[in-house]
What does this fold into?
Amino acid sequence: MRRATRILVALPAGALMFAGCAQPAEQSIEEEAGLGAGAVREQLSIVTGGTTGVYFQVGGVLANTITDGVEGQSGSAETTGASVENLRLLGSGEADIAIAQGDAVSEAFEGRNDFEGRAVQSYALAVLYPNVFHAVSLEGNAVELGLECFSDIVDTRYSVGAVGSGNEATTTNVFSALEISTSDIEIQQLGYADTDSALRNDQLDAGSWVVGEGHAGLSELATTEDVHLIPMCDEEVSVITAATNSYTEHTIPGGTYPGVEGDVQTIAVWNLMVVSGDFNEQQAYDITSAMFDNIDDFVAAYAPGEEYMVPETILNSPVPVHPGAARFYEEQGVELPEDLLAQS
It folds into this structure.
């Protein structure tokens, strides 16, 4: 994978990577008007996720950073169903900045899967940190049902995530890669808080949490319950990562969550901040610059992201970088490859 060599030089060992992006499925209205040619937006809606998730925390910091650090502009973090919904809101003009998983961003840009025939031409401001796929059960259920590899969830009650979330989209992609039929599982579409409650009340056997490592909600669940993280066995990881370049193998270190002592093998995907093509170029530059000027505030909101929240991480974007943000990264000495340079 061509980009791997570049990014591994700049990032710590174990950092994840994406392959290059494909060409957009259709030309957007924004592109026809010219990339970065829109008017400055004074009040910015930042779409995130649920209130207990990292997206909402990071979005709140971004809102404060814009309000306090960019003259004449203010930001507001909005709760949503996360990635897929966020990209749809961005595409419809109901949101100005979206935080979303890289797999959903790539699919939206190319008009695939949930975005078939309705491509969203989003461009990266920043690549943040990786989301890690957690298949979560309780120890008693795991022993009773024999949940030793991910594919063992067949014939269980399983939550794939909230409707329209990146969690649901990633879980669906994993099912597809492993040829797991949803007809063989009692599927539920629950957000993280409802998945937590259903597990505690024996209304669910397991569920997906595609979140930043060390997620507060998962840590809280593991503090009060005996949590079992269902590992992806070697062949499963190989099949999933071979099926798409959006995912890479990942290991959750033992001790990340209370009571989970052993390492857990799984996959991960990057998170991005994206804007539409017509987002004002100077405004994109100012916001990206302000973000990195205040990066300690973002790290305070999500400490495990510290090693990833550096300018060089933009090289992992699965879609082109917005021209305003590209100017910032070039000033930081980050050489963007041709496939990340947006074409007007």
